[in-house]
Design goal:
The protein is 7% helix and 32% strand. It is mainly beta.
Length: 195
């Protein structure tokens, strides 16, 4: 249950549930991607000593955690107390054995979307690669099979339908960041746009 007096970031209003892509929104590439879990794989590469290619079953065998956080969309709505389950981002980085040159991470998605964050921004214990929401496997319209959750950033930093995680030495600007949205996406500073 949402907390009655919980402080929201500036410009946000609470709603009851996350809006689903396809039903309420369209992806950058059109319809929500149809992903077959028998062929889907997550590639983890770039500035790493141990590149990974994980199937859905491989991913399910990694240590999972639960993280309860609020989700804030740049459009001005928030959903309180989302219960995400998935692989801690730190665990995946540990498995990939980052090189000292790794400073940033670019997330590539099945619909062509990209976004990036610094390793520092991804260092929190609440940063996870989610496969479930509120005890249920993610729906296609919510980013299944795998989405990033970064609670203190606007939702466009929480990439959906992830297929590749690339560690880089230099920052790569993502889809919305190259179109005028803020790269920092700080919810508490109301940092929505780059101008």
């Amino acid at each position: 249950m949402p907390q009655a007096n919980k402080e929201l970031p500036p410009g946000q209003v609470p709603i009851k549930q996350l809006l689903r892509w396809g039903k309420n929104h369209r992806t950058i590439g059109g319809p929500v991607p149809k992903i077959d879990l028998n062929t889907w794989a997550l590639t983890v590469d770039g500035e790493v000593e141990n590149p990974l290619k994980l199937s859905w079953n491989d991913l399910q065998n990694l240590p999972m955690t639960e993280s309860i956080s609020d989700f804030h969309c740049v459009e001005g709505w928030s959903v309180l107390n989302c219960r995400w389950e998935g692989v801690p981002f730190k665990k995946l980085a540990e498995l990939a054995k980052l090189k000292k040159t790794a400073k940033f991470v670019t997330f590539e998605c099945a619909d062509g979307y990209t976004t990036s964050l610094s390793l520092e921004e991804l260092s929190g214990n609440d940063i996870i690669l989610a496969t479930k929401l509120d005890g249920k496997i993610l729906e296609e319209g919510l980013g299944a099979p795998l989405r990033l959750i970064v609670p203190n950033k606007y939702g466009y930093k929480s990439a959906m339908w992830i297929t590749r995680i690339k560690f880089t030495e230099k920052k790569e600007m993502g889809y919305w960041e190259t179109r005028g949205y803020s790269d920092t996406a700080d919810i508490w500073k109301n940092d929505r746009f780059a101008w």
